[in-house]
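wait is this the right file?? whatever heres the structure
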């Protein structure tokens, strides 16, 4: 017996009968009830329909299926069993585990080809197909046939299979439930998308209406433009006609002018002829009078008259030729003299050009020397004043090594503090050390009272405790104060903010003690950049915008360097460093850029390919001290501000104790810095004259002349705020 497995015999076929209308109505109602139940209990994707729903409808469907089976006759059955087509032939098996190229396989294939199946479809299959075809035809002929109704015959046939094939009923039922669940899910999706479809239709209609409105508006504008074009064409035609008429008038006037010219020309010629005839008659009369006089000549008077006439004619002709020669050749010189003069002129011109070039060079050198002379004079005066001051207050140069044993920390700390500092700076360092020692010894500070000259955050009467913080603690506290000040809106003054900050940090009871403690510390440590700036802002000697602008400048410079670092390694070449500095500070001179590069670590002996760790230039130590690069930026800013105010004073041309008016100061600012905008100028004017910007007179207002201030006071007020050059100064015109 051949190995393999035979296909199972299926149940017997059933006879299908044509549907009646009431059967279709029953099926449609059953389909609608099934659909509504599915909608009421939607299942997630990949999950079968709820078992409770299947249980409820199972009995009803089974009854209906049994009724349909009773209606089917058994006239097409084959012995009361379903036909096993196409595997009902005896001995037909499924071959397994056979190689396609083996001899056994070829023999079996040959035998199968010699004895082909001579079977037809089972009657049960044909009846199912006929039943499906009739149901589909009936649905197509209906007036309300839909796609879901077309699935109903397939559902019924699938239910026949499920009921007849008991072995595969669970699998087929799960397949059917999975498909039904997916169909219900898709119907829910379609139902959810219906409002979106209506919205799309509405939006499409709105867009079409807008497009039509825009087209109508464009059509209206086009018609207006066409009308305007026609009017302009008519105007052009009218102007052309006027031009043609004017040209004809000009031609007519020219013709009349030519005729008048010819007329006056003929009149002039006739007048000349008349004058000549009159002269001739006068001459003849004189000749006749001479001829009638007795004893003049013994010759014939007629002959003499004729000779005199001819002589006069020759004289006239000769005079005319002489006049012509004088007119044509009066200024003519001999060629030899002309060439000599031309050569002399050329030599003199060359000498003049040489002397002019030499003069220009000498003039430039003279200007340079004058500038050097003026700068030398200034330096001489400065050195002379310094010399006088030194001579007046000269003392033996101190031996700073004596401080090594006095300063806390010994020689090593003193060497660290004194490194790179001059005598003046060393005095400040020594005073800071002495002051810090005295501060540590104090237990209480005496209150300064409630006078108007006392700052608001120090107004207290009595003894105030000395909190004795370290220098690092003071620096950290000042940093926190600046962070909070920059984070909030600046509605209150800086001293009020400082005291409120201390109240929030330490409470109202200890705020005054910390205010006195911080104030005494920042008043002593002048060498500390953060403390000195905070003290200047707190006492009103400097605007807080100066600190904010300086921090923004440093942040912007760091950002530009980070952008130039494409590899994000924290390294830049000296060439890139130079380019970033020039692009960030376009108004700085080459010397200032060179100073910044040297402060950043560049040396003239190094090459441009050397790498620089630019992030280390912006580091701060624990006491708030910046690197030399940032300190050099601050020094250059202060020098630029002093130079700017000095140029302003020189432009005004008055002494410090004299008064300056508002328009004069405004004009001087615009002269030395033409790039200033109106808002910035108003800010400077408001600070210099202590007036709100809203109360400043306009440029053309006569009230400006009445606003005056002492120049020294105005410059000191401008020194407080952030004043800087906005653009390059226009060069003075060459003489």
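ok assuming it is, sequence goes like this
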């Amino acid at each position: 017996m051949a190995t393999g497995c035979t296909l199972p015999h299926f149940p017997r076929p059933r006879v299908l009968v044509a549907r009646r209308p009431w059967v279709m109505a029953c099926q449609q109602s059953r389909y609608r009830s099934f659909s509504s139940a599915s909608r009421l209990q939607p299942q997630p994707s990949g999950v079968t329909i709820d078992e409770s729903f299947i249980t409820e409808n199972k009995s009803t469907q089974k009854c209906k299926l049994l009724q349909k089976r009773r209606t089917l006759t058994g006239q097409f059955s084959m012995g009361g069993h379903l036909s096993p087509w196409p595997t009902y032939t005896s001995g037909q098996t499924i071959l397994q585990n056979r190689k396609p190229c083996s001899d056994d396989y070829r023999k079996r294939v040959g035998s199968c080809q010699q004895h082909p199946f001579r079977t037809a479809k089972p009657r049960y299959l044909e009846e199912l197909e006929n039943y499906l075809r009739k149901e589909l035809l009936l649905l197509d002929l209906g007036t309300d046939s839909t796609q879901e109704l077309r699935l109903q015959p397939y559902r019924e046939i699938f239910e026949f299979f499920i009921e007849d094939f008991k072995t595969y009923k669970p699998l087929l039922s799960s397949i059917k439930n999975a498909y039904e669940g997916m169909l219900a899910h898709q119907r829910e999706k379609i139902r959810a998308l219906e409002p979106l479809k209506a919205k799309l239709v509405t939006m499409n209609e709105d867009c079409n209406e807008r497009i039509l409105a825009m087209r109508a508006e464009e059509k209206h504008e086009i018609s207006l433009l066409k009308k305007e074009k026609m009017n302009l064409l008519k105007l052009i035609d009218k102007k052309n006609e006027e031009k043609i008429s004017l040209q004809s008038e000009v031609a007519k006037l020219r013709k009349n002018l030519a005729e008048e010219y010819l007329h006056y020309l003929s009149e002039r010629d006739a007048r000349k002829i008349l004058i000549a005839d009159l002269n001739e008659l006068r001459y003849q009369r004189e000749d006749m009078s001479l001829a009638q006089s007795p004893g003049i000549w013994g010759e014939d008077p007629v002959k003499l008259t004729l000779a005199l006439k001819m002589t006069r004619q020759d004289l006239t002709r000769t005079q005319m030729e002489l006049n012509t020669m004088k007119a044509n050749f009066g200024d003519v010189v001999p060629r030899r003299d002309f060439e000599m003069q031309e050569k002399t002129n050329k030599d003199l011109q060359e000498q003049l050009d040489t002397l002019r070039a030499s003069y220009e060079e000498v003039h430039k050198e003279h200007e340079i020397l004058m500038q050097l002379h003026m700068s030398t004079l200034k330096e001489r005066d400065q050195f002379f004043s310094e010399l006088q001051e030194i001579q007046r207050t000269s003392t033996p140069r101190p031996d700073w090594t004596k401080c090594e044993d006095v300063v806390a920390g010994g020689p090593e700390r003193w060497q660290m503090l004194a490194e790179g500092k001059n005598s003046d700076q060393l005095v400040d360092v020594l005073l800071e050390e002495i002051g810090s020692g005295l501060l540590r010894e104090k237990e209480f500070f005496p209150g300064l009272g409630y006078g108007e000259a006392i700052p608001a955050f120090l107004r207290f009467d009595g003894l105030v405790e000395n909190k004795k913080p370290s220098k690092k603690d003071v620096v950290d506290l000042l940093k926190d104060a600046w962070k909070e000040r920059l984070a909030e809106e600046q509605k209150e003054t800086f001293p009020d903010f400082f005291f409120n900050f201390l109240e929030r940090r330490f409470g109202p009871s200890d705020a005054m003690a910390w205010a006195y403690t911080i104030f005494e510390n920042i008043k002593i440590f002048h060498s500390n950049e953060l403390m000195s700036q905070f003290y200047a802002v707190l006492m009103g000697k400097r605007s807080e915008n100066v600190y904010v602008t300086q921090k923004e400048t440093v942040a912007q410079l760091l950002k530009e360097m980070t952008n130039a670092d494409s590899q994000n390694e924290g390294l830049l070449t000296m060439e890139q460093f130079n380019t970033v500095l020039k692009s960030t500070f376009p108004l700085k001179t080459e010397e200032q850029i060179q100073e910044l590069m040297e402060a950043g670590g560049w040396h003239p002996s190094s090459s441009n390919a050397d790498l620089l760790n630019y992030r280390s230039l912006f580091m701060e130590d624990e006491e708030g001290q910046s690197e030399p690069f940032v300190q050099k930026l601050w020094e250059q800013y202060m020098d630029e501000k002093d130079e700017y105010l000095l140029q302003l004073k020189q432009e005004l041309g008055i002494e410090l104790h004299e008064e300056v008016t508002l328009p004069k100061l405004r004009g001087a600012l615009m002269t030395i810095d033409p790039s200033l905008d109106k808002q910035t100028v108003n800010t400077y004017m408001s600070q210099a004259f202590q007036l709100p910007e809203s109360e400043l007179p306009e440029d053309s207002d006569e009230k400006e002349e009445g606003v005056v201030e002492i120049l020294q006071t105005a410059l000191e007020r401008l020194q407080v705020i952030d004043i800087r050059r906005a653009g390059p100064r226009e060069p003075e015109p060459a003489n």
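The mean pLDDT is 77. so i think its the right one actually
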